[in-house]
Amino acid sequence: MVKRTRSAALPALLLSLLLTVCTAVPALGQDGDVEALLFQMTLHEKVCQLFFVQPEQFSRLDRVNAPSAALRRAFSRFPVGGVALFESNIRKSTLSSLTASLREYARNSRGIAPFLGVDEEGGGVSRLANKLKLKEKQPAAGIIGQSGDPRQAYRAALTIGAYLKQYGFQVDFAPVADVRTDVKRAEIGIRSFGGDPSAVASMTAAFVQGLTEQGILPVLKHFPGHGAVSGNTHKGLGLSGRTAEEWRQADFVPFQAGLKAGARMVMLSHQSAPAVDPEHPASLSPIVAGLLRQELGFQGVILTDALRMDAIRDLYGSGEACVLAIEAGADMLLLPYNFTNGYNGVMDALRSGRLTESRIDESVRRILTLKLDAGLIIGVP
């Protein structure tokens, strides 16, 4: 028998230590990168990832349309998960440098860049094309839908995706997957591809395909379908008489087509549908989020519609709205009326035990997974 020396035992000791470290810190790889990053993040950083806001909301600057030291410092304090730009933020001479700087600021924040998003549906809801007077502006979905040709939706999305990519965006809050119906005071109107679920499904899938091919993440909206809503949720209550079965037969059809085409983000409507959930608007409803997760099998990122809209603001404070949305199953909180109150509301709910860190981790894991695939985690191939 050969006697074991200290030098011979040393490699075994090092191997033992290495195995101990590897079990303490998640391994790398596609899922491992996400888990390793999640393992390192503070609770503050995780909560910030849930917010998709205008730059003025976390920076407290009067107007943001160019890079600045103040914006850099603000992002270092509140490394939010997404930044939505509107007409006031868009200036042709500085837009590209603004979007590039927001990505660059992430190098000092664990390398997690924010989603940069904009409403670019075509027609009247074309923040970029309207402000910059782009010749590439596309017609409204309703006009495209009248053609009956999904290839037109595909080409429109290719064009929109190309100029969004040029200016540094990764997220388009489009397409509208709502099926239009004849209700009084309808909110959606020409923003919908039409009134036939099958035709709208074909158009939605084609639009998703076009954006995706340009490297832009589409956001299907407004689940569970906003086409039968009477009233404008921007200005108050939007009421739907639909039942869950009616949603399944009509409204879900375009969303299913969009998910099959590859959409990985879905926006929840603020409509009130008492036949399905008499207590909560859809964006704050565990029932509605459950239908999306369980019946449609969606495992991607769920966003609320803008939480500053009157349908939410009239009934809830920003903190309570954000907490209710997370409890319901949303992953990202879009444009709360007051970002500070929304953030504090979530942190207070965590301190009191109303929310748990494991629940926050569920959402952040989905967000980081999508960001990794989109190349928004800097330093990770």
Explain briefly what this protein structure is.
The protein is of the alpha/beta class and 381 residues long.
Could you please describe the fold and organization of this structure?
The structure is a single chain. This protein has 16 helices and 10 strands. It has a single domain, classed as Glycoside hydrolase, family 3, N-terminal domain (TIM Barrel), CATH 3.20.20.300. It has an 8-stranded parallel sheet. A two-stranded antiparallel ribbon has the order 4-5. By secondary structure, it is α/β, with parallel strands linked by helices. The N and C termini lie far apart (49 Å). The N terminus is likely disordered.
Classify the secondary structure makeup into a structural class: alpha/beta
| Oligomerization | single chain
As a whole number of angstroms, the C-alpha radius of gyration is 22 Å
Tell me the number of helical segments per DSSP (H or I, 4 or more residues long).
16
Mean pLDDT figure:
91
Termini Cα gap:
49 Å
Question: How many structural units, i.e. domains?
Answer: 1
Strand content: 5-15%
Q: If strands are numbered along the chain, what order do they take across the biggest sheet?
A: 9-8-7-6-3-2-1-10
Fourth-tier CATH superfamily name: Glycoside hydrolase, family 3, N-terminal domain
Secondary structure: number of strands: 10
Kindly identify the CATH topology: TIM Barrel
Largest sheet: 8 strands, parallel
CATH class: Alpha Beta
